[in-house]
Recover the amino acids of this structure.
């Protein structure tokens, strides 16, 4: 029948409303709609019935799973097996090869009766008697456990460390030292009475328009430019909360300094992650420590299938400000960065993988005096994992250029193909890039299956203290990797201080600790604890201290074995040849005993533009008597003396050195740091210290709250 489009009524086919004209021109769309409806009906009729039965099975095991999770801190690593007591026998059924009945359809089991947790039957079978595994006639009454009274008695003498489940009447705490079967938890300090810093990780609103600050003291008038900072600023989306400090939505900060005055503004990074989360009013993109849950708007089967989708890499670049070809970027450790206008804080997304074959890059590149920039990034292939040294040219050919011309200088295979090392940064000397392959490992199989298992990337990172640390040397100009592997005992390092060459040796200074589990302890729940629970978190973190390694560059067939090769007179570090291509190194401490009083040092900075890759004397950092920096420290390598800035209740961030005009000495300039005051509302301030004397020159008090951030830089203007 010939029907003109104007006379036609829309026809319903499945879920598609199409006119005859549309049907005539798009038969495939109609066919696809029919197929979709047939599949949907099949799934709803058959698969959901099966899933409902699976959910019965899941609920039964869920009770046991949740109980084990609650007691994980005391059960994990026990020398003796523990017993699970339950009022149903699904675990026993799973161990026996019995035929399934159609009623229960539980994988690997046959239950003749419904148990206490799942009395559910198809209506077609009619009424059946409900029965638990233990018949009522077997139950006489409840009996108190003697162990419970013993535990409660122990609680009166042993304080709860606060690392386990919430205290409750039926959750007695067993003191760790009372049981030899409990996994040993290392305590590196015995600090008590730490103040709460919960507000440091509280969400704030951005301040997109500049606001004035209150100047106290004097801000030197020669300082002209933008002090830029990056870090997390939003820790929940709707009713969903992020788990880890590294997960919060990126908030960019700008302190504009001119003529002794300072204005402040901030802006949330308009990343895909931020916009998607905002649109759905929930966490829709997984982050380092938070895995997104299936969309509640989808049906059960769609949510089930979404578990098999791979993680979408986040572009939530909340770690640092970096520069390439003179332009500023905010960066994290995925393949996505955002180019930033330092004046307006407007951004443009840039993808590393559009230019070179890498799956990410660090947030800590190194830049040569001519502008050439080096970075590192991983790649994952069928042959295994590789660490790639990246080189980016110094200048742009056109104004719109970003990473054009970037190349992979060389690729280093991971020692373990499926478990590459995690690294946050690397070191660079005049002629070498130094990559440190440390025993913090990424389990790629766990990462790939993370969404299916409901686990985040942080759950796939582990510390393997059985492995040595390996220093890899790559010649910057040839891309050749040294055949000599420099080994050291297991260490964890996030930030290097400096590296330089002198008298045939490569000297590398870094902040390092002897344990690599700290990264997983910085979840938001830990940072919001108080009292003894907060003390326990801090005391189980290994502190980072500045160390020096000296690597001999001229190791050949004539180099002797089993003796110290270090003839450089300025260090007590050692390097001993132990095999043809292996040198074992021990470090020198770059500090005195007094640094222990300040909890070690992290976030190291130097007079970078003048002294990076060269011999130097001073470095600056934060002391860590808390989970975040609570002091600023200047370290003088001549005599390992230090100067300290500290005020109770004030938490300074990473110090940034800004040289004064016409500086003649290494420490001619100022140190700038954003200081957070969680005990006082709207009193965060930009601190300016004289870098030479380490005395305060002035501060700019900001009338809004700012969370504790990570890294920053100074953008000088004329």
């Amino acid at each position: 029948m010939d029907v003109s489009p104007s006379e036609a009524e829309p026809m319903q086919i499945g879920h598609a409303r199409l006119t005859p004209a549309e049907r005539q021109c798009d038969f495939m769309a109609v066919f696809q709609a029919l197929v979709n409806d047939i599949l949907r009906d099949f799934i709803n009729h058959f698969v959901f019935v099966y899933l409902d039965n699976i959910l019965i099975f899941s609920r039964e095991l869920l009770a046991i799973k949740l109980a084990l999770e609650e007691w994980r801190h005391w059960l994990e690593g026990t020398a003796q097996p523990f017993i699970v007591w339950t009022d149903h026998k699904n675990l026993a059924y799973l161990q026996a090869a019995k035929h399934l009945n159609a009623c229960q359809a539980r994988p690997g089991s046959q239950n003749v009766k419904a148990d206490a947790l799942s009395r559910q039957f198809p209506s077609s079978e009619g009424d059946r008697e409900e029965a638990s595994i233990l018949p009522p006639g077997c139950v006489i009454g409840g009996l108190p456990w003697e162990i419970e009274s013993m535990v409660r008695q122990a609680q009166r003498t042993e304080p709860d460390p606060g690392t386990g489940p919430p205290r409750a009447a039926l959750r007695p705490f067993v003191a760790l030292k009372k049981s030899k079967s409990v996994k040993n938890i290392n305590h590196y300090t015995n600090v008590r009475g730490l103040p709460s810093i919960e507000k440091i990780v509280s969400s704030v609103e951005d301040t997109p328009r500049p606001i004035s600050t209150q100047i106290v003291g004097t801000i030197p008038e020669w300082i002209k430019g933008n002090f830029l900072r990056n870090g997390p600023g939003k820790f929940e989306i709707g009713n969903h909360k992020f788990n880890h400090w590294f997960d919060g939505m990126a908030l960019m900060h700008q302190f504009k300094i001119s003529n002794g005055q300072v204005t402040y503004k901030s802006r949330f990074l308009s990343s895909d992650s931020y916009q998607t989360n905002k649109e759905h009013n929930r966490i829709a993109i997984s982050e380092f420590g938070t895995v997104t849950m299936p969309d509640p708007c989808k049906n059960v089967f769609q949510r089930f299938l979404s578990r098999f989708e791979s993680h979408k890499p986040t572009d939530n670049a909340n770690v640092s400000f970096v520069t390439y070809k003179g332009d500023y970027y905010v960066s994290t450790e995925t393949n996505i960065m955002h180019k930033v206008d330092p004046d307006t804080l407007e951004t443009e997304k840039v993808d590393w993988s559009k230019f070179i074959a890498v799956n990410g890059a660090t947030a800590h590149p190194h830049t040569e005096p001519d502008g050439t920039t080096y970075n590192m990034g991983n790649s994952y292939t069928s042959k295994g994992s590789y660490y790639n040294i990246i080189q980016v040219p110094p200048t742009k050919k056109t104004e719109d250029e970003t990473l054009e011309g970037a190349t992979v200088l060389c690729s280093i295979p991971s020692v373990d193909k499926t478990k590459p090392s995690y690294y946050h940064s690397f070191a660079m000397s005049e002629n070498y890039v130094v990559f440190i392959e440390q025993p913090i490992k990424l389990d790629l199989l766990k990462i790939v299956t993370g969404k299916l298992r409901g686990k985040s990337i942080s759950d796939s990172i582990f510390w393997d203290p059985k492995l040595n640390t390996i220093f890899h040397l790559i010649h910057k100009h040839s891309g050749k990797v040294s055949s000599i592997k420099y080994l050291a005992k297991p260490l964890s390092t996030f930030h290097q201080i400096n590296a330089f060459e002198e008298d045939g040796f490569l000297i590398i200074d870094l902040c390092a600790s002897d344990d690599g589990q700290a990264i997983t302890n910085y979840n938001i729940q830990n940072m919001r604890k108080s009292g003894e629970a907060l003390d326990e978190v801090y005391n189980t973190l290994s502190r980072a201290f500045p160390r020096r390694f000296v690597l001999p560059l001229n190791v050949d067939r004539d180099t002797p074995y089993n003796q110290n090769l270090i003839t450089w007179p300025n260090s007590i570090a050692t390097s001993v040849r132990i095999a043809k291509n292996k040198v074992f190194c021990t470090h020198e401490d770059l500090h005195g005993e007094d640094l222990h009083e300040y909890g070690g040092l992290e976030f190291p900075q130097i007079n970078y533009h003048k002294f990076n890759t060269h011999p130097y004397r001073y470095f600056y950092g934060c002391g860590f008597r808390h989970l975040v920096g609570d002091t600023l420290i200047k370290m003088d390598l001549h005599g390992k003396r230090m100067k300290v800035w500290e005020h109770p209740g004030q938490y300074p961030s990473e110090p940034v050195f800004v040289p004064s005009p016409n500086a003649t000495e290494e420490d001619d300039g100022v140190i700038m740091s954003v200081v957070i005051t969680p005990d006082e509302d709207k009193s965060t301030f930009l601190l300016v210290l004289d870098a030479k004397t380490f005395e305060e020159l002035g501060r700019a008090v900001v009338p809004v709250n700012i969370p504790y951030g990570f890294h920053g830089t100074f953008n000088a203007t004329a």
In short: The CA atoms of residues 235 and 391 lie 35 Å apart. Residues 146-182 form one domain.
